[in-house]
Amino acid sequence: MSNPAAAAALDAAGGSSLEGQVYVVANSDTNSLMVMTASKNFDRVKEIIDDLDRPLPQVLIKVLIAEVTYDRSLDLGTEFSILNLGADAKGSVFTKFGVDQGAGMVVSLVEKDVTAALTALQKVGKLDVLSRPYILGSENQRAQITVGQRVPFITNTRTTETGQTINTIQYQDVGIILNVTPKINPEGLVILDVSPEISALTGTTVPISETVNAPVFAKRSATSRVAIQDGQTIVIGGLMEDRKTEEVKKVPLLGDIPLLGLLFRKTATNTTKTELLIFLTPHVAKQPGDLQEFSAGTLEGTSIVNKAVTPGAFEKHLKGMERGGPAAPAVNP
């Protein structure tokens, strides 16, 4: 056989029962096999190929990315994540899922539906749903979603003999990047290799030449492997952020008077603790037609608790994630 991989696959499927010489050529571009052998082997070859030609299971993963801004009265202490707190804070909604995953990441199983989980989270702080994307991936194939923006920056600069300046520009994905590789074991468990990454501009730069500075990025990432049942939901937490904001309190009208207005307004810098939570719910489709069986409600996403979420533009969230940059002012008359 001219292609070792094709030969091995054909032999494993019973190709050794064929008589005479057999030549197999695999074409990955067209996803096809060309088999040259005696005509008496035709039926057996067709049977083997039909057995090999099975569609890979697909996994539709519902993703909900939320941010919790904790009330100042809530003391997380050394628990790092709301998912580690006791039942008084979150009821019986979350169950600790194994051990902490490192880099401060915590994985918990959502015992009830996601709406109940969001209701519980609402009790401990302001809840903001940043994105509700979907990932449709094949088994053992990595899928990626990016919620954010591509930031251009100069990585190198040079001057030609004629005095022309040439810059080398690269683009960096900034925001929330989630890599998921689904696998399905014989028992029907969905194994997810999950790698969340959160990055943001710090507001500072480093010089790369006499005239060019490059931005500095802050990045937090972690890797975890979890196994859950089809349709169950896990939540990844522990990705914390201390955010500084400036709050301006002033007397209406008088606080806007140039110079004199300084006597009628006060600026305070507040630090709030936020946590990014990523909910993942896999749905297995063993046949392509199974995807059509998902109800409209499943494809539309999780219903959001009334007043539990304050939808915000991702640009505002990204600005708040900046470390070392100017604080975002919040004016309260």
From TrEMBL:
Presence of keyword Membrane: yes
Gene3D superfamilies listed in its UniProt record: 3.30.1370.120
GO cellular component: membrane; type II protein secretion system complex
Domain (Type II/III secretion system secretin-like) ranges: 120-285
UniProt xrefs under InterPro entries: Bact_Secretion_Sys_Channel, GspD/PilQ, NolW-like_sf, T2SS/T3SS_dom, T2SS_GspD_CS
Pfam family, one: Secretin
Keyword terms, alphabetized: Membrane, Signal
One Gene Ontology term from the biological process aspect of the record: protein secretion
Compartment(s) of residence: Membrane
Family: Belongs to the bacterial secretin family.
Protein name: Type II secretion system protein D
Source organism phylogeny: Bacteria, Bacteria division TA06
